[in-house]
Amino acid sequence: MKPVLLVVEDDENIASQMKWALSDQYEVLLSSNAGLAIDIVKNNKPHLVTLDLGLPPDPDGSTEGLNLLGDILEIDKNIKVVIVSGNSEREVALRAISKGAYDHFGKPIDIDELKYVLKRAHYVFSLEKEYHEMEMALHRSIDGEIIGSSKAMLEAQAIARKVATNDIPVLITGESGTGKEILARYIHQHSRRNKNDLVPLNCGAIPENLMESELFGYEKGAFTGAHTRRQGKFEGADGGTLFLDEIGELPLPLQVKLLRFLQDNKIERVGGKGLIDVDVKIIAATNRVLKEMVSEGLFRDDLYYRLAVITIDLPPLREKKEDVLLLANHFLLKYSHYSNRQKYLSQGAMDSMQTYNWPGNVRELENKIRRAITLSDGIVISSKDLGLGLIKDPEIIYDLATAKQMLEKKYIIEALARHKGIASKVSKELDISRPTLTGLMKKYGIEYNK
Ligand SMILES: Nc1ncnc2c1ncn2[C@@H]1O[C@H](COP(=O)(O)OP(=O)(O)OP(=O)(O)O)[C@@H](O)[C@H]1O
Ligand SMILES: [Mg+2]
Fold it and tell me: Which of 90, 214, 241, 417 has the most CB atoms less than 10 A away?
């Protein structure tokens, strides 16, 4: 297929000459004004555009042309726009380039030269396109991928693959940001249901009175305002997976209805007159301890036992420190396009990530890396860039000099106590001179009052 070239030119003579000369290599489309040019850009998606800046209603100026350039790039920033201008417009042409035009070309037009410029423009266009496609594919594969070589994560994935082969409900538990949703999607992707949707519903985000119709849908006339029949999430997920996030927030009356579905795979719309069969796998998630909620009467025990047959518990990040660096490098790659260079972690950054206790878990790690990629100046990300500079725990981490000083201070205080402050005995025991002892006591602010 020939590359598509749009020629924007209000001089009919020039336009038809160009079309005649370029048609063997390009599919040439013509426009003599901005409005038509925009329609063509939207509908025919040209790869290349030659743009005469002097267009009506301003054929001697460049305003209309420059505006059109902006509009074209707004629609598709990958289009290569070559400005065609008279010699007197050279300065304007350069301005156009600073606004994103690919190149500029002087009138009168030398067709061979123009062919050469267009050929090069198209070459760059194809390279960029290939690059974007590769990058997209990379991000797609990176996106749903679950990273982790800790025992807990390997186990979680193994169970996930197993439960993906059947229709038994799954309960995923874990603190906020530990990866409950990404695991739910992983299960869905590995199941026979992956041609259909995973439909997420956050049970805590919807007011109780709307929750039932949200889940089960309603019939026309079920309540004031129900002008038409509407499907709920269950029917939307038919053939696929319904992901019930924050299941602990599901109101008790709806817990009954969910339990009923789990028993016979049927639902009833609000105001409905009969049961409807739906084929849905339920994956529920919570960061609360459901068992405690059961004993407090906030969660039905029969539903709990039905849901918890297969429970996957995701550990907090602080309990799988061996995954921290793997995840960090994964996110460095995932967000590498935030900067024009691939960035790396300094040793200090890696150390501080190991000691930090990650209350926000993987989500927090992901956000910190994303932020650091943007904030760091060079290619190396420091612990300060991560916002972990001040979080080192002084109880645990010492450099050698500090450790030595602390030990010295401790020894002197203890010896002074043993010898009731008699300096000669202390210096003898510690094998240092009297002036050294006095110096150290001063240095560490030790006083001994007999
Ligand atoms: N093992 C992992 N590998 C790669 N990315 C992960 C992993 N775990 C979590 N993430 C990423 O961390 C972020 C948070 O994960 P997710 O939304 O699944 O957590 P969650 O447990 O559902 O949190 P919340 O309870 O706050 O909803 C997401 O961007 C997800 O892609
Ligand atoms: Mg979640």
Answer: 241
